[in-house]
């Protein structure tokens, strides 16, 4: 049984085709620069050579049709006909307060996704476009929406409400939503599997550290707090996002620097974070390399980044009344041992003891704490697409 997973961006369409029984990726690919003259489609079939086509791709429906031609091509395809696809799972960034789990897509669901566009104006529209393209190209094939925000709908009101007039929450939905939910959910479940313990018995802090970073407290299998808020701008310092900020700074800078709303948004999202502090790069690999070479502001950016993550770990340990395991994932969390080590320095009082040898090495699923560490520390590579495939199958009851 085959599940097709789609992640549709404003100018891209990413896909993976899974064999459900084995959970193996049969093919993956991406259509880039959709709607532009320089568009290109890359296709990676399992066990075969990569295929790239530089062709005009005017819209996402066209991209979807080209994807299906590649998947069913006699030479570099992996299925004979589209009828082999049992279902399509879609990544949808924002489900607001409407969705606390993945759902089968209906007209009502699509309308609700549209209602959430004001909460994610850059993401929900292309997500919806991908759904509509799939419906046209694969009519009758069931579609499932998997929401980045859904896992965090278990946050209690005291964790998701801001200290502003309650009427603004009631009227405009201003609250903490959290993001990276699919990743946090997958990693928490995988952590429990590695430790051979029920997730419902664990207090887990998952650290999704990449160019966009978020920390989540998972208690008894449920998200009880998370660092990203109303938007993905809140939380720990990130590649080019500022993270937590005194809101008065925004008003101060607008007045002092003469910045309008769009310029302010650009500054906070694209010119801040470790990029803004270092003046060098938003990529933590560049920051680490420069810091080790003596670059003063890169060293400062590294310290700020690791300090903020450590601060959240401490806070979430208090929120849950303790912590059993800390898990690192995503680009930085999976690959940069020095940053993991620096984050854990100072957490010995919680019972965190890192094994420096285990912590070294490339991307792999592993326990990096010592055998006698009261708090276990893991590295678990995230797999949001696989989680979407599993959620799709579960919603449609394709698996027992």
Description of the structure:
With 400 residues, the chain is of the alpha/beta class. It has 15 helices and 14 strands. The chain has helices at residues 60-71, 107-115, 124-137, 157-160, 166-172, 181-195, 247-257, 261-270, 273-278, 284-292, 296-320, 330-335, 337-344, 356-359, 384-395; strands at residues 2-9, 12-19, 24-32, 40-45, 51-53, 85-92, 103-104, 143-147, 203-208, 214-219, 222-226, 325-329, 366-367, 376-379. It has an eight-stranded mixed sheet, sandwiched between helices. The protein has a six-stranded mixed sheet with strand order 11-10-9-12-14-13, with helices on both faces. Strand 4 (40-45) and strand 5 (51-53) form a beta hairpin. The radius of gyration is 22 Å and the shape is globular.
Report the CATH topology name of the largest domain. Nucleotidyltransferase, domain 5
How much helical structure, as a percent, in the residues?
Answer: 25-40%
Number of helices: 15
Estimate the strand proportion. Answer: 15-25%
SSE order: EEEEEHEEHHEHHHEEEHHHHHEHHHEEH
CATH C-level class of the largest domain is: Alpha Beta
Widest beta sheet: strand line-up: 5-4-3-2-1-6-8-7
From the alpha carbons, calculate the radius of gyration and give it in angstroms: 22 Å
> What's the name of the CATH homologous superfamily of the largest domain?
ATPase, nucleotide binding domain
Main sheet specs:
8 strands, mixed
């Amino acid at each position: 049984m085959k599940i097709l997973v789609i992640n549709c961006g404003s100018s891209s369409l990413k896909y993976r085709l899974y064999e459900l029984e084995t959970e193996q990726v049969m093919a993956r690919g991406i259509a880039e620069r959709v709607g532009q003259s320089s568009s290109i489609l890359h296709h990676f079939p399992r066990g075969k050579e990569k295929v790239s086509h530089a062709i005009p791709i005017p819209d996402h429906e066209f991209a979807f049709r080209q994807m299906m031609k590649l998947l069913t091509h006699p030479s570099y395809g992996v299925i004979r006909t589209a009828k082999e696809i049992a279902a399509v799972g879609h990544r949808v960034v924002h489900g607001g307060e409407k969705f606390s789990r993945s759902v089968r897509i209906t007209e009502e669901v699509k309308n609700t996704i549209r209602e959430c566009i004001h909460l994610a104006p850059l993401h929900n529209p292309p997500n919806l476009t991908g759904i509509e393209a799939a419906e046209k190209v694969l009519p009758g094939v069931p579609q499932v929406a998997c929401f980045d925000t859904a896992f965090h709908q278990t946050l209690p009101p005291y964790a998701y409400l801001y200290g502003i007039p309650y009427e603004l929450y009631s009227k405009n939905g201003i609250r903490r939503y959290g993001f990276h939910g699919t990743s946090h959910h997958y990693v928490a479940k995988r952590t429990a599997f590695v430790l051979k313990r029920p997730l419902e018995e664990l207090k887990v802090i998952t650290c999704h550290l990449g160019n966009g970073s978020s920390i989540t407290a998972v208690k008894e299998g449920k998200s009880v707090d998370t660092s990203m808020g109303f938007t993905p701008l809140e939380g720990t310092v990130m590649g080019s996002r500022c993270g937590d900020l005194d809101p008065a700074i925004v008003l101060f800078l607008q007045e002092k620097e003469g910045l309008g709303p769009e310029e302010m948004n650009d500054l906070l999202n694209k010119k801040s974070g470790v990029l803004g502090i270092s003046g060098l790069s938003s990529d933590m690999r560049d920051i680490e390399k420069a810091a080790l070479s003596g670059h003063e502001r890169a060293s400062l950016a590294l310290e700020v980044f690791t300090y903020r993550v450590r601060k959240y770990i401490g806070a979430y340990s208090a929120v849950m009344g303790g912590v059993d395991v800390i898990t690192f994932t995503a680009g930085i969390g999976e690959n940069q041992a020095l940053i993991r080590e620096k984050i854990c320095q100072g957490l010995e009082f919680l019972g965190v003891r890192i094994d420096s040898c285990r912590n070294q090495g490339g991307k792999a699923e592993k326990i990096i704490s010592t055998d006698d560490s009261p708090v276990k520390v893991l590295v678990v590579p995230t797999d949001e697409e696989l989680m979407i495939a599993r959620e799709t199958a579960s919603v449609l009851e394709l698996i027992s």
